[in-house]
Amino acid sequence: MSMITVEVKFGKHIKNMFIFSGDRKKIVMTYVTLKAWGKSLDIGGELTIEVQCNVRQALADSAGGYAINFQQDRSSDINGMSLHFKPIGPSSTVVLNTLSKGKWGQETQMQDENVKQIYFENPFKLKLKAISKDTVHVYVNDKFKAEYVCTNQDITETRYIIFPPFVSIHPL
């Protein structure tokens, strides 16, 4: 299956990717480079962003949720995803996972009774603190939520944040 990617600038630093696959499906994702924001994720360092879901109610009730991906490249096919962060409203969970060499790692699920309110209805602060090259602490609104091991991935090599166009992110 052939894939064609077209990029369109959206704002000062944020760009949209339109990915057309051989079966004519169009996938739209938005991305930003950490470099454009003057940010990085070094061992002992933190990366903090504000996240807002702009289609709150419809998505909060959807089993699919939305994902924010921290990647080395724009394409997950090349080097995978160091961290896949996915709130899912109906199950009141946030899924953390890693994609490496085309295979998903061991999924970690954070249970949170306020998923719809925190991740869909209001902007929230997502903070990642790199503990080592493959381990990150995840904080939401300054509360520790999980220690996650990015199997076969180096979280400090994150260069891109990939997210759907109905989600807004801003550096803090």
TrEMBL record:
InterPro entries from the UniProt entry: ConA-like_dom_sf, Galectin_CRD
Entry keyword Kinase: no
Name of the protein described by the UniProt record: Galectin
Pfam family name, one: Gal-bind_lectin
Superkingdom in the source lineage: Eukaryota
Galectin domain residues: 33-172
GO molecular function list: carbohydrate binding
UniProt entry keywords in alphabetical sequence: Lectin
